[in-house]
Amino acid sequence: MKHARYQDGMTILEALIAILILGITTTAITSLIVTGDRIAGRRTTIYTATTLAKSEIERLRAYEKSLVLPKDTLYDEVVNGVEYEVKRNWIPNDTISMNSTVLHREYSVSVTRKINQSVSVSFRTLQGYYGEPTQ
Fold first, then answer.
1. Is the N or C terminus of the chain more exposed, i.e. has fewer CB atoms within 10 Å?
2. Rounded-to-integer distance, Cα 80 and Cα 87, Å
3. How far apart (Å, rounded) are the C-alpha atoms in residues 110 and 49?
4. 127 Cβ contact partners less than 8 Å away, ≥ 6 residues apart
5. Which DSSP state fits 65?
6. What averages of pLDDT result for each successive group of 10 residues across the chain (135 residues)?
7. What secondary structure letter does DSSP report for 26?
8. Which of 66, 39, 49 is nearest to 127 (CA)?
9. This prediction's pTM
10. Which run of H or E residues covers position 4?
11. Those residues with Cβ within 8 angstroms of residue 84's Cβ, 6 or more apart along the chain or in another chain
């Protein structure tokens, strides 16, 4: 006797395999979406931190033609509900001659996200004064 195969539907084994493949595919796609969202959030945070650092460096540039030398500063800034810590420090340099008409000071500007300390940007910049020597 010949065995007739049931042609109208799936067997239980085929259905289980299809559900398994669907589950693996769904898990992989969900994982990719979560990873993409995490990368986009980090990119936005780094962009915002870089923009805050740029603003602080622009404040330093405003002092370039002034005899007033900016001091260290530390303050918090909130952008889109996210809190950042902005820190500016003067880096002492003993090689600068005070008799020179050109005076440069080196600063470090760092911006750190308060909630997630791993997101941080840091820059070093020169702030200079070109003018008459003061005595």
1. N
2. 19
3. 9
4. 60, 61, 63, 64, 70, 104, 105, 106, 107
5. T
6. 56 90 96 93 89 88 71 88 89 65 77 81 76 47
7. H
8. 66
9. 0.66
10. none
11. 48, 49, 52, 76, 77, 78, 111, 112, 113, 114
C-alpha to C-alpha distance for 24 and 45, rounded to whole angstroms: 32
The two tokens of residue 87 are: 């820190």
List the structure tokens of 90.
């003067």
What the block records as the tokens of 52 is 């805050």
Q: How many CB atoms lie within 10 A of CB 88?
A: 22
Beta strands, E only, 1-135: 73-79, 82-91, 102-113, 120-130
For 79, the token pair is 């952008």
Pairwise CA distance, residues 59 & 125, whole Å? 12
Distance between CA atoms of residues 53 and 125, nearest Å = 11
Q: Both tokens of residue 9? A: 């539907």
pLDDT at 128: 67
